[in-house]
Amino acid sequence: MWLTGRLAPDFKTIADFRKDNGAAIRLVCREFVMLCKKLNLLSDALLAIDGSKFKAVNNRDKNFTKAKLKRRLAAVEESIERYLIELDAADATAPPEESQSLKEKIAALEEEMIRLKKLEVRMLEAPDQQLSLTDPDARSMKSRGAGMVGYNVQTAVDTSHHLVVAHEVTNTPVDRQLLHHMAKQAKAVLAPDPEETLSVVADKGYYRGEELLACERDNIIPYVAKADTAGKRAKGEFPRSAFTYIPQDDEYECPAGQRLIHRFTREESGKQMHRYWASACPNCSIRSWCTSADYRRVSRWEVISADYRRVSRWEHEEVIEATEARVKQHPEIMRARREVAEHPFGTFKAWMGSNGLLTRTVDRVSTEMGLHTLAYNMKRAINLVGMKTILEAI
């Protein structure tokens, strides 16, 4: 800086460098992770996987979904009807200037209606039926209970020194289908041998049976807590966990001590599901704690339209049961997840400030996040081992 007289590159020079060297910047980020591995700064014991929403260069008013367009069209129609009523009243009593002003407002609203109809056609043609005008790849997603237009950035963070092992920019609003994808990227860095194992921890948002199964098949051990979404507890009914599976008999035992036997198997949403229920349900004394379905009794021995408490079991349910057992045995892993996974995200957002991302489209945002990740990892590594050690390793 002293030799150049504090000469700094122009903003356009920086922007062009970032635009023209996106792939190389992402490769440098990966190379530095490999350097950290050589310096023994990465632990292959456990990784924390998490995602965070980053604000895109796209105003919420320029993002359209089915629900948003429906509300906007209804608001425009309501305004047109209101102005038409006012126009009828103005034609009889008001001066011509007021009537002309109302006609101009109605014409502007009709043009807006035509514009929204055209946008609706474009939105419905999109694969996810969502349209963003400024940044075509940005998507509407929830963040801390509020809506925003942005990207879902995923990271796999080393639990020993909080270094980012792998990261990816996605426009998928939810995390449910991203666990195996991110874990596999991290395993390629830390444990490239297919026979090696890697443990990963993630929050309830990543819980999905198919993802857990895919991890197990690739020697990735997941720690993911299960979210109770059935709502049985809120109704005062027994949750599914109250039913104990008996493997040797392929039956479930209910809280009343009755056996739910296997009735049939069918495919549901691409998964083979086994269904179980007990014949004793209609006469059970605690049936109201188990199911709220009504039934009509004809006599003491005959029941018409009886409904039973049915339990479904996936063909690979043992993977889910093994994951639940691991989470119960090691609660300290789940407690450590938040402070590890959210450390990089907090740093990134502090650097960015309130403006959020500066670039548009997934490819360019990936380059921008690659620069942030590289800077974060470099600063962490310098603090851990010092610049001299890093230069010698390079």
Summarize the structure.
The chain has 394 residues and is α+β, with helices and mostly antiparallel strands. The protein is built from 10 helices and 15 strands.
Q: How would you portray this structure in words?
A:
By secondary structure, the protein is of the alpha+beta class. The protein contains 10 helices and 15 strands. It has helices at 11-20, 22-38, 66-93, 96-125, 179-190, 209-217, 317-329, 331-352, 362-385, 387-393; strands at 47-55, 63-65, 130-132, 139-143, 146-158, 164-170, 198-202, 220-224, 244-246, 251-253, 259-268, 271-277, 296-297, 303-304, 311-314. Strands 1, 4, 5, 6, 7 and 8 form a 6-stranded mixed β-sheet that branches. Helix 3 (66-93) packs antiparallel against helix 4, helix 5 (179-190) runs parallel beside helix 6 (209-217) and helix 6 (209-217) packs across helix 7 (317-329). The radius of gyration is 29 Å and the shape is flat. Mean pLDDT is 86; it is low at 297-305.
Unreliable parts = 297-305
Strand percentage lies at 15-25%
Mean pLDDT: 86
**Tally of helical runs:** 10
SSE class = alpha+beta
Radius of gyration: 29 Å
H/E element sequence: HHEEHHEEEEHEHEEEEEEEEHHHH
Envelope shape: flat
Summarize the helices and strands and which ones pair or pack:
Blueprint (H helix, E strand, L loop, with lengths): L10 H10 L1 H17 L8 E9 L7 E3 H28 L2 H30 L4 E3 L6 E5 L2 E13 L5 E7 L8 H12 L7 E5 L6 H9 L2 E5 L19 E3 L4 E3 L5 E10 L2 E7 L18 E2 L5 E2 L6 E4 L2 H13 L1 H22 L9 H24 L1 H7 L1
Parallel strand pairs: 1-7, 7-8
Antiparallel strand pairs: 1-5, 2-3, 4-5, 5-6, 9-10, 10-11, 11-12, 12-15, 13-14
Helix pairs in contact: 2-9, 3-4, 5-6, 6-7, 9-10
